[in-house]
Design brief:
- Keywords: Cell membrane, Membrane, Transmembrane, Transmembrane helix, Transport.
- The protein has 468 residues and is mostly helical.
- The chain is 78% helix and 0% strand.
- The protein has helices at 7-12, 25-32, 35-57, 61-88, 97-115, 124-149, 156-187, 192-217, 233-242, 244-274, 281-306, 308-325, 334-370, 375-403, 415-440, 447-464.
- The longest helix has 37 residues, at 334-370.
């Protein structure tokens, strides 16, 4: 049976503007700026804050770890709930704006408590409440914000452009908070309180500036003509696992996260012990990150030319090759390792960027098929795949290298133990990136099909809307 909407028909009757006539770049930059405070908080919360509270306030690492684990469990419940409630919200201010504003207030107050703590007030309960609040505020901003980012344009490639702006803004903020501690170490060595306060100032200052910019950048689209059915939360969450396209995207993102987290968790050990270049461990991580920021627009352009799914597959296969290349590096030789690190940075943004751009398309397909708009719920599931991916990476990679004989506290490790470290560091990410590419290969929701979906949605919404 012949298809009703062929590529030639699509070219002749393209329902959306070409990329050159798309969203205004300054408005896009303003909208994307809200990624800055959210991303800026991630690295300090995960790296600097636990050590600071342990060293300066005497909280045990076991207790801090338990609090962070509790946050992960809390997020697994709260994120889909926020997505569901945002989809159901109907106010004169829109569906997304009220959540972003309320979340910004909670996020900002919690950041003040965490990054500018009064020594007399700090206790395990203080840390737990402040940490849970900052993650709640972050989710209240980020999930509706991501859903809104998929709604400001229905154009297949414009959505990639929106996510690219957000990715570059967020990565740039992460780069800033990576550099800050290095600069402070040169001026005030070992002043952990100053480093924490400086990062807190970046987070809170950028929050105050970017929330108004983002909220004023675009008009929020009106809710769909067919309101979302108010199913019980349990049944709503069960929908996520019955959506085959969403399931493929999330499993692919899970595999990407496992690979990236395995590499991130072992890179210091690999550079320090296997390569014998301890003074380059932080520098190589920074190099990889800088080139990751540069890569965002490059992968966006690739996505414009060959489609999101093909770009994601290409990037994942490139990472497979890069990680396999690590098997051939020679200890003590910086040049080949530096080249592979730069290549890794240039390749690493492909999967994250394309997969997040694809979720809005999947939400459109779901709305056409079911009549239900669950964009925010769909975006909230990325927190589940990323958190699960990070947990699996840490839970497997570190015990595995230990089982293979590697000991970071030992004066020296055996050649077999170092070889085990190499195999886990190189092969682990290579395998997971290959799995990610396999999952997303042949993804059926391409540009032609998505354009037909958008055309039919607009026709249906126009028919259901009250006459002017």
């Amino acid at each position: 049976m012949a298809t009703l909407y062929t590529p030639s028909k699509f070219i002749a009757a393209r329902p959306f503007p070409a990329r050159s006539g798309g969203l205004n770049r300054w408005r896009l930059a303003s909208f994307a700026s809200l990624s800055v405070p959210i991303y800026a908080a991630q690295m300090p919360l995960g790296v600097h804050l636990p050590a600071f509270y342990a060293q300066h306030f005497g909280l045990s690492l076991g207790l801090i770890g338990a609090i962070f684990l509790g946050e992960r469990l809390w997020g697994a419940l709260a994120d889909p709930l926020i997505g569901t409630l945002s989809d159901r919200t109907n106010s004169r201010f829109g569906r997304r704006r009220p959540w972003i504003v309320a979340g910004a207030v909670i996020f900002g107050l919690a950041a003040l408590a965490l990054f500018f703590p009064a020594a007399s007030a700090v206790s395990p309960l203080y840390l737990a409440v402040a940490l849970f609040a900052i993650y709640l505020g972050s989710a209240m901003i980020q999930i509706p914000y991501l859903a809104w980012s998929g709604e400001i344009s229905g154009h297949y490639h414009e959505r990639t452009r929106v996510v690219t702006f957000q990715t570059v803004a967020g990565a740039s903020s992460l780069l800033a908070v990576l550099i800050l501690p290095t600069v402070i170490d040169q001026l005030r060595p070992a002043d952990a309180a100053l480093k924490l306060a400086a990062m807190g100032a970046v987070i809170i200052g950028s929050l105050v500036i970017t929330v108004p910019l983002a909220l004023r950048a675009f008009a929020e689209p009106s809710a769909p003509a067919t309101p979302t059915q108010r199913l019980p939360l349990g049944r709503t969450l069960a929908l996520l696992f019955r959506e085959p396209l969403l399931r493929r995207v999330l499993l692919s993102d899970f595999a990407v996260t496992v690979g990236q987290s395995t590499r991130g968790g072992l890179i210091v050990f690999f550079v320090t012990f296997y390569m014998g270049l301890p003074h380059w461990a932080s520098g190589l991580f920074l190099f990889q990150f800088i080139f990751g920021v540069i890569a965002g627009p490059i992968w966006a352009e690739i996505g414009y030319r060959i489609g999101k799914a093909r770009a994601a597959v290409a990037g994942e296969l490139a990472q497979v090759a890069i990680n396999l290349g690590l098997l051939f590096v020679v200890p003590g030789q910086l040049g080949p390792l530096l080249a592979l690190t730069v290549a890794q940075g240039l390749a690493q943004g492909s999967g994250n960027l394309m997969l997040r751009s694809m979720v809005a398309d999947v939400a459109d397909e779901h709305r056409l098929r079911t009549g239900e708009d669950r964009s925010a719920l769909f975006f909230s599931t990325f927190s589940l795949s990323s958190k699960a991916g990070m947990a699996v990476a840490v839970g497997i990679a570190l015990p595995l290298v230990s089982w293979l004989g590697f000991d970071p506290t030992a004066a020296s490790n055996t050649p077999e133990a170092l070889r085990g470290l190499l195999w886990v560091f190189a092969l682990g990410p290579a395998i997971t990136h290959l799995i990610s590419a396999t999952l997303i290969h042949g993804f059926p929701l391409h540009e032609v099909r998505h354009s037909e979906i958008r055309r039919r949605l607009e026709e249906r919404d126009a028919a259901l809307s009250p006459a002017e």
